[in-house]
Specification:
CATH class of the largest domain: Alpha Beta
Distance between the termini: 34 Å
CATH superfamily of the largest domain: Fructose-1,6-Bisphosphatase, subunit A, domain 1
Number of domains: 2
CATH topology of the largest domain: Fructose-1,6-Bisphosphatase, Chain A, domain 1
Number of helices: 8
Strand content: 25-35%
Number of strands: 15
Amino acid sequence: MPSHTDDLRLAHILADDADSTTMDRYKALDLHVATKPDLSPVSESDRKVEDVMRKTLARARPRDAFVGEEEGTTGWGIRRWVVDPIDGTKNYIRGVPVWATLISLMIEDQVVVGVVSAPALGRRWWASYGDGAWTGRALMSAQPCRVSDVSDIGDASLSYSSLKGWEKLGKKDQFAGLMDSAWRTRAYGDFWSYMLVAEGAVDIAAEPELNLYDMAALAIIVDEAGGKFTSLDGTPGPNGPNAVATNGRLHDEVLERLR
């Protein structure tokens, strides 16, 4: 597969613009928040970030499609940018710093570029296909990400977002059993669980219900860090309805426990 250096640089530019927009309104007392039809919140920053990205990509990559959480899909073709303007909107509107903009480029069903930018944490992670996963403040000041070598669930750290979705999926008992078997469990939540897997600080992350824009950027970073990212049925990548990410060594056993 050809190099995607230019696409990765563009993704960082998009992330810079997103960071400026989100941080400008973070903790603003007059931040406008609405409720979407699915009863989830959406802030003015969510909509503005997505709008800015759509306009930038319309100029820079006019032939590419765009898939956004707020306004859906526009354009067509095998190249599509998949964006979650703010992953962790509930944290954002309450002043909790664990939220991020997720940016990815997919060619057909393969993620080739992913950037996760969490400006309130002062962190950014990224990857491009075949070039490894990295973290740092900029492309020129980066450290490689590498998953852990933990090989026993009894020694593993597990991160999740909530338990409600597991009950809805009919797998609350299975997930509770996995939690009981793990050495440590913490609800770091959302994108951060998966970035901690990529860094080797956490060994397992899982969520029972997600969308493509929630997962695409996370999947390539975990994979390029040496881990494994699949749906609960074992389908590789972010194209299923849920996610399991591990350091790879634990993956088959985790999937088996959750079946």
